[in-house]
Amino acid sequence: MGNAGAATTHDTHSHGVGHYDPAAGKIGMWLFLFTEVLLFGTLFIAFAVYLQKYRFDFREASGHLDKLIGATNTGILLTSSLTMALAIAVLERSRKRLSLMLSAITILCAVAFLVIKSFEWRAKFEHDIYPKSATMLQKPVGEQMFYGLYFTMTGLHALHVIIGAVVIVFAMVLVRTGRTNAERITFLQNTGLYWHLVDLVWIFLFPLFYLIG
């Protein structure tokens, strides 16, 4: 009897079951997302304040951003939100392979977004348009503020895209090994929540920077 109990305990640990508390995991994730909302919310408030103060300069600077690039990246991130949501939905039905495929598409969307954003940034740097550059220092204060916020907020968002993609890769490893499955899906769900927040932030960034000009 004692040997049987020891074997059961060993099997439990060897299969990585352990303690599983999805409610606590979700609460922790929502608290983390709240701190992210505070971070970006502060920057959005700063943008609104400076927009009121330098309305003409902000519109002038916005007119020099490529709206097609912004719209393309918006479409890419919206697609990634859909594939991420579907990856969770199909894993809830124990369709592991399809979930992995949809997660991989989400990562490809993230990479596409970052590549397009890098081309956009490179074009600005090639024209000497970046904070504290000689060309930038000759522009009106309002335009300097616009580009300062542009590089800060889109750069911070890009960092979150990179982090999100890395977390999705980790989630895929857990799904592939069976540690995340239909019965233990909280980690993938939390990953999806983070990714949706990243997409939501861009939904606000796009009109603020690209459509006010």
How would you describe the overall organization of this protein?
- The chain is 82% helix and 0% strand.
- With 213 residues, the chain is mainly alpha-helical.
- It starts with a helix and ends with a helix.
- It is elongated and about 60 Å long.
Top-tier CATH class: Mainly Alpha
Strand content: under 5%
* Low-confidence parts: 1-17
First-to-last CA distance: 76 Å
Shape: elongated
Total helical elements: 8
The CATH topology turns out to be Four Helix Bundle (Hemerythrin (Met), subunit A)
At the fourth level of CATH, the homologous superfamily is: Cytochrome c oxidase, subunit III, four-helix bundle
Number of domains: 1
Main sheet makeup? none
**What class do helices, strands and sheet pairing give?**
mainly alpha
Q: What percentage of residues falls in helices of 4 or more residues?
A: over 70%
CA radius of gyration is 22 Å
List keywords for this structure.
about 80% helix, mainly alpha, Four Helix Bundle (Hemerythrin (Met), subunit A), elongated, disordered N terminus, about 210 residues
How is the secondary structure organized here?
Layout: H1 2-14, H2 22-53, H3 55-62, H4 67-91, H5 96-126, H6 134-137, H7 141-177, H8 186-210
Helix pairs in contact: 2-3, 2-7, 2-8, 3-7, 4-5, 4-8, 5-7, 7-8
Summarize the structure.
The chain is mainly alpha-helical. 82% of the residues lie in helices and 0% in strands. The protein has helices at residues 2-14, 22-53, 55-62, 67-91, 96-126, 134-137, 141-177, 186-210.
